[in-house]
Structure prediction request, 401 residues.
Amino acid sequence: MTNSKDVSPTGKHLNFSVEEYNTRLTKIRTEMRHRDLDLLLLTDPCNIYYTTGYDAWSFYVPQCILISASEVEPVWIGREMDRTGALITSTLSENSIVSYDDKFVQSQQYHPMSVMAEQIRARFGSDLHIGIEMDSYYMDIQSYIKMQSELPLAKISDASLLVNWVRAIKSDTELKYMREASTLVENAMQAAIDLIEPGVRECDVAATAYSNLVSSNPDFAGAYTSTPPLIPAGERLNTPHLSWNSSRYENNTQVNLELMACRNRYHMPLGRSLYLGKPNATLRKIESAIVEGLDAALSFIKPGVRACDVEATWQKAASKHNVQKSARCGYSLGIAYPPTCGEKTVSLRPDDKTVLQEGMSFHLMPAIWHEGNSLVITEPFVVTKTGVETFCKFPRKLFEK
Prediction:
């Protein structure tokens, strides 16, 4: 049954008010004018969703949103079979939804960028300054070359993170969805920890995690995530991006769990480690370093501090235990589609001088690989007026069974 709260008077399934979408477009157009852009062509599904609400598993073929610097409705261009999805899930009127024939899909003869260029010429002109997302996973080289050939009078510039930076400060409704996602990921983490025992298969833990990430709350549903559960164990433990297989857990085995929930495309990650047996002294030292570092960083964060200083605060606390982390210890968090949940803007690392503002959300993730041991304890949070709010309230420790 459709949740009536998500259906507008026009029958569209919207996760935000039309006013909020309009506010977003106003901010984006302001930045476009600062860059002297006439038109913005978005291919990142995160930014397509953010600007129009369009939400479908259709990003494996070329699709885009065209946003003019003038106050005209954005235009969606995608595959014909996805046109109805755009009508249902986006704010756009029928005239602003354009589709291309299936002959353009994965063809050696035709390319969807021809249709996109034709629409640009017809609706906005040819002599334009166009910003595109050159660093998007979804803007391939062939599309870029085709765009250049089809629009020879246009000036094309990189606008890869223009919308991403607008997304950095979350609204009250966005934070509501992130808090809802946090309940799902907490439920999934607890269910996975409860299930893991010697003799249990890794794949069964993954299945339990998935079930809880989608349906563990009776009031709302979770959605597919950008990243699968990452639950390496045993010999596969000391690398971060492995998932599961059919192996059975054994005694004296550690499991690192990195789970992620999604609510209306807003993601919430959470990492914890579990040891089946008695952890060694090195693991306990790493645990103390991570927890003290998390406590110190979270106490330090408030509007006005810099991302690099958050990282330095964590490192200083962890260094008391002779533990350091070479990779970044956090990243900005929000909307996500495969293949990643990061917003690709702020990173908590030494060279990032970004000043944190109220409403920015992050995953503080000082996962550690040290002296042949690893440990994962992470905290997602949002910057508040006076400090931080941690989204999850899950025990911050190395679990033992």
